[in-house]
Amino acid sequence: MRAAPPRGRARRGRAQRWTAVAFLAPLIVYLLLFYAYPLYRNIELSVHDYTPRAFIQGNPEFTGLENYLKILSDDAFLSALRNTALFTLGSIAAQYAIGLALAVFFHRSFRLSAALRAMFLVPWLLPLIVSASTWSWMLNSENGIVNAALRAFGIGQINWLTSPDTSLLAVTIANIWLGVPFNLVILYAGLQNIPADLYEAAGLDGAGAWQRFRHITFPLLRPVSMITLLLGLIYTLKVVDIIWIMTRGGPADASTTLAIWSYREAFGTGQPDFSPAAAVGNLLILIAFAAGLAHVRLQKESA
Amino acid sequence: MRAWRTVVGVVLVGVMLFPVYWMFNVSLTKTSDMRADPPHWFPWDPTFEGYAAAFGQQLPALATSLFIGLGTVALTLAVSLPAGFALAKLRPRGGRTIDFLLLVAQMIPGVVMAMGFYAIYIRLGLLNTVPGLIVADSTLAVPFGVLLFRAFMASIPAEVMAAAQIDGASTWRTFVSIVLPLSRNSVITVSLFAFLWAWSDFIFASTLNRNSDVIPITLGIFRYIGNNTTQWNSIMATAVIASLPAAFLLVLAQRYIAAGVTAGAVKD
């Protein structure tokens, strides 16, 4: 005979469930209104032909996937995709390498190490407009400090932001600088979780610094490294501010990534064109999502 | 000893923070020296004309940003504190789904959010308004806030809450008089980040408030750059002022930052 649960507890359980819902309600309403609805509007924009007039009157023509097809066959698409790949992969590879080197350097504490490590957070805390305008002036062709320093080594003027050959590199350098602190902090926290006795044992076996790094640090840091790179990828894919402030995607689209393309179509010109902009934005979400799924797959394989 | 590490560390910080030094240096450089060749490495003969211009022209924008930042903090806390508590302690149905949604929410590009908000605001008449910008800016911090509060509140011992409930306190009372005071540090962490992200926001400001007379400081600097590219000391002086909240955070609230970075591990 199965005993029925005491009535009192059942009632209390139900009451508790309703209490939980009540406490969650603001968040649920918030997520629906300010995430789900903008996202829905964005999808809706991308499958209609929203001219500026239709945008205000709200009577656009339904065009299905036409905006997506138009974008994929646009000449600008391949160049934006290439720029996105270069910008994103270049940024996260360099951020990770520099961040890891610094994390290893700071791993053994020394005099002032905590204070110096904290100083590395500065680029990450500054408003992007501040960093971007500072870098713009530093990379200024005639009066920038970077070219002045290069001149001292006999290197001629480089038009960092105004030449199509270097503008993507210039914004990538600024973005690497911005991303190093984040990589440093996460990788440093990861290093703290590697048991110290492993290093002691390796030291007794006569392993050098490089061998310890190669055979202990790097393999044991793998899960942290993967999540750092994934977050870096997702974050870098959607970067708009730094590029827009420094080059506006130019000259001649040379530093136009997918995110910049989307931003410019929607807000960057006098003629807002929201439908293709929304389609490009949704494409970006798909890429980020694919990266997230790939990460989950990789994690399962290595587990 | 290991003194060489300190020396190397100082040099590395010097390299890393050179752009910050340069901003400061340019902010004190005379307009007539701005195009000197080679550039002046140190402001031997400083001028405060840049700061005078910055305060003269950007004070309203600074006040707007301050207001927007505080509003964003209030909205973020109001939404994420009870939600974090529910997820940590009340074991609601669908809690894991919400976790997942919060992670996905942080993946959405800012430009996509901006377009969505734009499309909604244009109908509601919320474009170019401060409340509209506060709501949009809060989306930068709410997922982070919920996840951080949940992680922190999960570590509050169950006995503490059980004791309150035996005394007859309702869940709301327990939340307000037991959980909230214990969560002080995490409230500070989330508030600081919500403020900083709202203060630093450029995407929402440049899309939702671009035709407004009431603009935040990020947009003030952006318009500055567009308008007069010769007055770099004024631009950099404004940039220095706009960096003050970050400097304040680093000096006075560093342990809260460290807590936030490692617990949340995500910045939009």
Automatic annotation (TrEMBL), chain A:
Cleaved signal peptide residues: none
Keyword 4Fe-4S recorded: no
Superkingdom in the source lineage: Bacteria
Membrane-traversing stretches: 21-40, 85-106, 118-138, 168-191, 220-246, 277-296
Compartmental location: Cell membrane
CDD domains associated with the record: TM_PBP2 (cd06261)
PROSITE patterns membership: ABC_TM1
GO process terms (BP): transmembrane transport
Swiss-Prot/TrEMBL keywords: Cell membrane, Membrane, Sugar transport, Transmembrane, Transmembrane helix, Transport
Keyword Iron annotated: no
Entry membrane topology: Multi-pass membrane protein
Gene3D superfamilies in UniProt: MetI-like
Domain ABC transmembrane type-1: 81-295
GO CC terms: plasma membrane
Entries under InterPro entries matching the protein: MetI-like, MetI-like_sf
Entry similarity comment: Belongs to the binding-protein-dependent transport system permease family.
Protein name per UniProt: Multiple sugar transport system permease protein
From TrEMBL, chain B:
Signal peptide feature range: none
Membrane topology note: Multi-pass membrane protein
All copies of domain ABC transmembrane type-1, residue ranges: 62-253
Key word Heme present: no
CDD domains, per database record: TM_PBP2
UniProt-annotated location(s): Cell membrane
GO cellular component, one term: plasma membrane
GO biological process: transmembrane transport
Keyword line: Cell membrane, Membrane, Sugar transport, Transmembrane, Transmembrane helix, Transport
Transmembrane regions listed in the UniProt entry: 7-24, 66-88, 100-121, 133-153, 174-199, 232-253
Family stated for the protein in its record: Belongs to the binding-protein-dependent transport system permease family.
PANTHER family per UniProt: INNER MEMBRANE ABC TRANSPORTER PERMEASE PROTEIN YCJP, MALTOSE TRANSPORT SYSTEM PERMEASE-RELATED
Protein name: Multiple sugar transport system permease protein
Annotated source species: Nonomuraea wenchangensis
